[in-house]
Automatic annotation (TrEMBL):
Protein name from the UniProt record: PIG-L family deacetylase
GO terms of molecular function: hydrolase activity
Biological source species: Gordonia westfalica
Transmembrane segments: none
UniProt keyword terms in alphabetical order: Hydrolase, Zinc
Entry's EC annotation: 3.5.1.-
Length: 233
């Protein structure tokens, strides 16, 4: 048996908060697919449109394209609520404006679970995290804490997707749909690595992020680190 705790199941709505298009697909889309298969509601909210994410493409062209790819990708894993906030790609900071938008969205969607980006400096030794991700993750934590200090009406749990996981979701049955979901970012991936077919890139990434963990009996999982919520969960 894995030493990770099972992800909670007593919830109806999850809010996925990320910085850019493709952020959900690189880590947590397989878990999202499982949850929507179970009839749960999952909402995606993205700080930016990723308008600076494709080399050689002007932001005015890139942003709408990446939004379209994100919506297509989300639909593959059963998510039909996707919103973009318009914060500047590659220039996201933990500002009062960003924290206010996070808080407004949490109050409007009223999820029981928030899923956010890993905010640490490195994924592993020599593998630095992106500044946008770190700033955004910090803003999510700060907004959550401010809500808790005010009305107290906050989601029961806030998780980050990344290393140092505390909880896991079994996703053996969702591997292929997660691959297709990432591959829907076709233009982005084809420019990112023109020498590798998009589907091969997607399969390799999902293979890495869902690889069976020690003690998991060969079962593919997605891991999440509990950042806020009941400590004994």
């Amino acid at each position: 048996m894995s030493n990770l705790k099972p992800f909670p199941t007593d919830w109806r709505t999850a809010l996925v908060l990320v910085a850019h298009p493709d952020d959900p697909e690189y880590g947590m889309a397989a878990a999202v697919a499982r949850w929507t298969d179970e009839g749960r509601r999952v909402v995606y909210a993205l700080a930016s449109s990723g308008e600076r994410g494709i080399e050689g493409m002007p932001p005015a062209e890139c942003g709408p394209l990446r939004e379209a790819e994100q919506r297509a990708s989300a639909s593959i894993v059963g998510v039909d609520e996707v919103e973009f906030w318009g914060f500047p790609d590659s220039d996201i900071h933990n500002t009062p404006e960003l924290r206010a938008k996070i808080a407004e969205t949490v109050e409007r969607i009223a999820p029981q679970v928030i899923l956010s980006l890993y905010g640490g400096p490195e994924w592993a030794p020599g593998q630095p995290n992106q500044r946008d991700h770190m700033e955004f993750a910090a803003a999510v934590l700060d907004a959550y804490d401010a809500l808790a200090a005010g009305s107290g009406q906050v989601p029961a749990w806030l998780f980050e997707n990344g290393p140092a996981a505390t909880h896991s979701v079994d996703v053996d049955a969702q591997f292929e749909v997660a691959v297709r979901s990432l591959a829907a970012h076709d233009r982005y991936l084809s420019v990112l690595d023109p020498d590798t077919p998009v589907l091969d890139q997607a399969r390799a990434q999902i293979d890495r992020t869902t690889a069976p963990r020690d003690g998991a009996d060969g079962v593919r999982t997605v891991g999440f680190a509990l950042k806020r919520g009941p400590g004994n969960l």
